[in-house]
Amino acid sequence: MPELSRRHALTAAAVLATAAGVPAVTALTASAAGPAPHHDLPPFDEVYKGRRIQGGPPSGGGHHHHGGGYAVFVDGVELHVMRNADGSWISVVSHYDPVPTPRAAARAAVDELQGAELLPFPAN
To answer: Of the chain's two ends, which shows fewer C-beta atoms within 10 Å, N or C?
Structure first.
């Protein structure tokens, strides 16, 4: 019996999805919509390991293009954050360690900085 090729596997998956009908289409549409919008994220302001971390809707004047409407600060210095397609968050400090929320991104940055000062990120 010949081995199953990728093309045959994808064809079989398409046939099964078609047989399943509307629920499969609904599931695909929901997953393609991406993560929930940022406006449902609560603001935060706390001291974490002796550092003040804050987050919330931007107050204008900053560079919030990657955070998409959510600003995060460590000791008053903006921490550039970005939301991934899967809904996780990364920062310029902990870029390869996705976390579930902007607050977790701020905490991860404080952990990574190990007491060092966060320097402003130059705008392009």
So the answer is: N
- Among residues 59, 55, 31, 51, the alpha carbon closest in space to that of 43 is found at 55
Q: State the Cα–Cα distance between residues 53 and 72, nearest whole angstrom.
A: 7
> Quick count: other Cβ atoms within 10 Å of Cβ 66?
13
Q: 38-113 has which CATH code?
A: 3.30.1880.10
Q: Which residue is listed with tokens 């870029």? A: 95
Q: Tell me the per-residue pLDDT of 47-92, one tens digit each, with 9 for 90 and over.
A: 999 999 999 998 765 554 555 679 999 999 999 999 999 999 999 9
Whole-number Å distance between alpha carbons of 58 and 66: 12
Provide the residue ranges of all domains of the chain, joining segments of one domain with +.
Answer: 1-33, 38-113
Q: How far apart are CA 99 and CA 122, in angstroms?
A: 24
Q: Is the pTM of this model over 0.90?
A: no
Structure tokens at 90: 């990364």
